[in-house]
Specification:
Strand content: under 5%
Structural class: mainly alpha
Length: about 525
């Protein structure tokens, strides 16, 4: 049995035990409402301060909840806040670790409350919150050590801890400042609410308290069942997360001094490589405008490409990259040129592949799915689908390709058209999966990373889980992982030597489980 599986089994058991502890306390409906509100507040606090790495009031709220309400409610506030906020930040093998770490912060608050009779001054409370931040960081360092490093030696853990120390110190400092600012006020507010809940109102009290019991049990059991399913899937997801992390690091290391990317590290930056690198990083959850080489980000290059783009393909690709970077679609007059590129029949240059990415670019530039331009393009694409569900780059009746079918499917999904045409295209793609888990450009043929990555994004666009699409026990995500080199670069195929940067970028977008158009989450 692997380190990863053992750790997730233990972690899952601990989380289930924590929720069972809360259930056995038989919380009333008012306590349930308060815990849910605090969990939502903690999650929103994490989201609101996302632009500042590791600075967030979440740990303070969780610790104070445990301090005032007790260990079981504090544990649930922390665990649910982690689970809820990751609906935005992305679920993965790190989620149960975050749930456990913040749950322990709630228990730590309860221990402090018991030792001090819940009488904690402003400065001691701030110091306790700072310490909780360091404890949280140590646990998350352990999660990386176990999940991605296999727990191989204390020296490896210390190396991980040294790398993350600036972020953990920022977390602790942020907790200290937040606790100084609002900690005592939140303690007083929760204490008043707790005192009201503990008042006895005679004969009606047991009935009122029991009203919440029927809610707590099923809710906690349902959440525990969800956690157990997540624990079983987590070891398999961990491998894909590791590939994604290494690919992102490769892109960061391959950035040029001007802030852009070329076909290979050190090669001159160009629009194709830079645009796809921006999309890939954003899809994987990284802000591409925070990636710097000698203080330069891709911002200036993207603006220059927007001003100079004239061909349909350049305009479309740059519009998609601007959206991924969070830059205005009007940069360099690009959105106006994009709209002028569309013909009256809805197509772009009369080609299926350019119309697919033109539709995606329209959506990236801010047009709603129901707009006339988007829907005209979607109808034009649907009318050129082959009888087997595939699409060619140019016309109906020509042999379909995986890349063009995946592009058309993402476009139709972006237009909100997930009807029979989209389902037939998805069935075509799934039925063409090779035995190595990957996909060929033109089936039957040898798999490659670009076609596989585009197919994964098309599956995601249709709400289909690519991790479950297996041929001979091999998934498309596993195929991409098998093509990754020690540097993090993902090769085009098993036989390719030199591989351009954009292949890793497109693979990273697939590993990030994001379909086009991608918009950065700040």
């Amino acid at each position: 049995m692997s380190w990863e599986l053992v750790s997730f089994v233990i972690l899952g058991a601990g989380l289930v035990a924590g929720f069972a502890w809360y259930e056995r306390s038989q919380p009333g409906s008012r306590m349930l409402a308060l815990v849910a509100t605090l969990a939502a507040l903690a999650a929103i606090g994490r989201i609101a301060f996302a632009p500042i790495p590791n600075v967030k009031p979440t740990t303070d709220i969780v610790l104070i909840a445990g301090l005032v309400l007790g260990g079981a409610p504090g544990f649930v506030v922390g665990s649910v806040a982690a689970l809820a906020s990751n609906l935005l930040f992305g679920q993965g093998p790190w989620t149960p670790w975050q749930m456990a770490a913040w749950g322990l912060c709630g228990i730590l608050g309860a221990l402090i409350g018991r030792m001090t009779s819940r009488q904690v001054g402003r400065l001691p409370l701030a110091l306790a919150c700072a310490g909780a931040g360091l404890m949280f960081g140590a646990i998350m360092d352990a999660s990386i050590w176990v999940t991605y490093g296999g727990g191989q030696g204390i020296s490896q853990y210390l190396a991980i801890a040294a790398t993350s120390l600036p972020f953990n110190l920022a977390h602790a400092a942020g907790n200290f400042v937040f606790a100084l600012a609002f900690g005592p006020a939140l303690v007083r507010a929760l204490a008043r609410f707790r005192d009201r809940m503990e008042v006895s109102w005679g004969e009606s009290a047991p009935a009122a308290a029991g009203a919440g019991r029927g809610i707590a049990g099923p809710a906690v059991l349902l959440l525990a069942a969800t956690l157990c399913a997540g624990m079983l899937a987590a070891p398999f997801e961990a491998a894909a997360a590791s590939v994604k992390l290494k690919a992102a690091r490769y892109l960061v290391s391959a950035q040029n001094r001007d802030g852009g990317w070329g076909p290979a590290p050190g090669a001159r930056s160009n629009a194709v490589q830079t645009s796809w690198a921006v999309v890939g990083l954003a899809a994987a959850g990284y802000d591409p405008l925070r990636v710097k080489m000698r203080g330069r980000t891709p911002t200036a290059l993207l603006r220059r490409y927007a001003e100079r783009s004239r061909s349909t393909a350049d305009i479309e690709r740059t519009a998609i990259a601007l959206a991924a970077a969070g830059l205005p679609a009007s940069t360099g007059g690009l959105s106006a040129r994009l709209r002028r590129s569309q013909r009256a029949d809805g197509s772009f240059a009369g080609l299926i592949n350019l119309t697919s990415y033109g539709l995606i670019a329209l959506r990236a530039s801010g047009l709603p799915a129901g707009s006339s331009r988007v829907q005209r393009a979607a109808r034009w694409i649907e009318a050129r689908q082959n009888s087997d569900g595939s699409f060619n780059y140019a016309r109906r009746g020509a042999p379909g390709t995986t890349d063009d079918t995946a592009g058309a499917l993402q476009a139709l999904a972006a237009a909100g058209r997930r009807g029979s045409a989209s389902r037939e295209a998805l069935d075509y793609l799934i039925s063409r999966q090779n035995g190595d888990g990957g996909f060929a450009f033109q089936p039957p043929g040898r798999s490659n990373s670009q076609s596989t990555a585009l197919t994964v994004q098309a599956m995601v666009a249709m709400g289909s889980n690519p991790a479950l699409k297996r041929r001979a026990s091999r998934s498309p995500l596993g195929y991409l992982g098998a093509r990754q080199m020690s540097s993090g670069l993902i090769r085009y195929s098993s036989t390719s030597a030199a591989t351009p940067v954009w292949v890793t970028s497109q693979s990273l977008a697939a590993l990030g489980r994001r379909a086009l158009p991608v918009r950065i989450r700040r």
